[in-house]
Amino acid sequence: MTPHDHDHDRTVKPMVDEVTDFEVLEIALRELCIEKGIFTAEEHRRFTEFAEQIGPTPAARLVARAWLDPDFKALALAEPMTASKEVGVDWLEPTGFGTPSDFTAFQILEDTPTVHNVIVCALCSCYPRPILGNSPEWYRTPNYRRRLVRWPRQVLSEFGLYLSDDVEVRVQDSNQKHRFMVMPMRPAGTDGWTEDQLTEILTRDCLIGVALPKPGVTTNVITATRAAVHPVE
C-alpha cells in the first residue's frame, strides 16, 4: 500500500451522521431563551443533568408499597401526586411548575385479573418522567406509537407479553397535560417479600405495561444513581 492509498473499509464513521430538524429547533430555542435571559447556559446544563439522573426506582417502590399496604394503595390510586411525595418525588420541584414536564394530571392505572393497562403517547412521546425517568427509545418511535393504539396485542406479543382473550387490553394515550403509569398485579410466589425485594422486580417495562413482574426477572431494573442536584439555586 502506497502512502496515497487509503483503506476505506477502516474509515471511522462520524459519531453524529446528521442533525435532525428537532435538534436544530431545540438548539435555536435554547439559544434564544439564553439570549432573552429566560435562563442561563449554566442553569440549562444543571437542569439537563438533573433530568438525566431521574429513574423509575421511585415508581417501582410506590407500587411495591401499594402491594403491601392497602391504605397506601388507596392513596396512590386516589391521590397519586401525594403518594409520589411519599416515595421522594415532588412533581412541582425543582422549578415550581413541573420536573421536567408541564402537566395537569397524573394517574396510576391499576391492572386487574380482567384488565391490562399499557401507556403510549400517540402524538409524540409524553411520559411521566419525574417518576419514571426518561422514556426508552422505542417508546418514542412512530412504530410503537402508531401501532399500539391499533393492534395492542400484536405489539405486546413483540415484547414477549401474551395475554389471554378474556383479559381486556386498555391503551391509555398520554398527552401534554396528562401522564400515566401502570400498577401491575402482584405476581404469585412473592408472599413474605419485603418492599425492597418487590421493588427490584418492578421493571420500567412493567410500569409502562409492556411486561409483567416476575420473581427473578430484574431486566431494566434501575441501577443505583447518585442523588440529583437541584439544578437552579
From TrEMBL:
Record-listed E.C. numbers: 3.5.5.8
Where is the secretion signal located?
A: none
Spell out the InterPro entries in the cross-references. CN_Hdrase_a/SCN_Hdrase_g_sf (IPR036648), CN_Hdrtase_a/SCN_Hdrlase_g (IPR004232), CN_Hdrtase_asu/SCN_Hdrlase_gsu (IPR023900), Thiocyan_Hydrolase_gsu (IPR023901)
The UniProt GO MF terms for this protein read: thiocyanate hydrolase activity
Gene3D superfamilies in the cross-refs: Nitrile hydratase alpha /Thiocyanate hydrolase gamma
Q: Which residues form the Nitrile hydratase alpha/Thiocyanate hydrolase gamma domain?
A: 21-211
Keyword Cell inner membrane recorded: no
Q: Which UniProt keywords apply?
A: Hydrolase, Metal-binding
The family this protein is said to belong to: Belongs to the nitrile hydratase subunit alpha family.
What protein is this chain from? Thiocyanate hydrolase subunit gamma
Give the originating organism. [Mycobacterium] burgundiense
Q: What is the lineage of its organism?
A: Bacteria, Bacillati, Actinomycetota, Actinomycetes, Mycobacteriales
